[in-house]
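wait is this the right file?? whatever heres the structure
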């Protein structure tokens, strides 16, 4: 139904940058594409409170998206697949400047973590169901392959043009994947609520 509800989420000091990175790009993305009204209250102690208002279905999707964005893979539970992308310093710098990278967990049903190295290399870990991981990997690669590519605000554009061969197609980067045999049903939202929907591509 159309009844409105309120969701409040505590945001720790460690998690605050995940919402406010790149002039609050993740927060703006979540606000614009979830259908919820979102307000982030910042506290003097460094933590915050995110207040979301919307229908019960919308708030359910917002909660799932926040869980992927704010929790580490260990905190979020076991994942079906882990995929690791390693980027050379030049590509690592370009990704660091991309506001779209910070929205990956909001576009796809994945969790994203990163491990920068002292020599400038960057390792990104994607955790989630294989179709979602595949879609997220292709999106991350597209940030480097084509600067003019349209923004996948709903995760539904830019379908892959070739079969996934299990490795990164980027020059100067390598990838490796580790899959487990476990499987689980993934929660989904109605098509009108884009947050949390995986748009994986050809498989």
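ok assuming it is, sequence goes like this
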């Amino acid at each position: 139904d159309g009844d409105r509800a309120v969701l409040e989420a505590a945001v720790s000091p460690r998690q605050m940058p995940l919402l406010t990175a790149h002039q609050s790009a993740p927060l703006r993305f979540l606000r614009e594409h979830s259908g919820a009204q979102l307000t982030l209250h910042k506290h003097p102690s460094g933590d915050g409170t995110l207040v979301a208002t919307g229908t019960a279905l919308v708030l359910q999707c917002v909660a799932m998206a926040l869980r992927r964005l704010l929790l580490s893979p260990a905190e979020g539970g076991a994942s079906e697949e882990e995929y690791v992308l390693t980027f050379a310093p030049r590509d690592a710098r370009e990704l660091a400047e991309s506001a779209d990278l910070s929205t990956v967990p909001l576009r796809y049903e994945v969790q994203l973590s990163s491990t920068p190295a002292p020599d400038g290399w960057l390792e990104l870990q994607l955790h989630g169901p294989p179709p979602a991981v595949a879609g997220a990997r292709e999106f991350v690669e597209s940030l480097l392959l084509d600067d003019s590519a349209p923004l996948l605000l709903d995760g539904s554009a830019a379908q892959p043009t070739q079969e996934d061969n299990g490795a990164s197609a980027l020059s100067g980067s390598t990838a490796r994947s580790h899959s487990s045999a476990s499987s689980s049903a993934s929660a989904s939202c109605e098509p009108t609520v884009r947050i949390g929907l995986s748009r994986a591509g050809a498989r």
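DSSP finds five helices and seven strands in the chain. so i think its the right one actually
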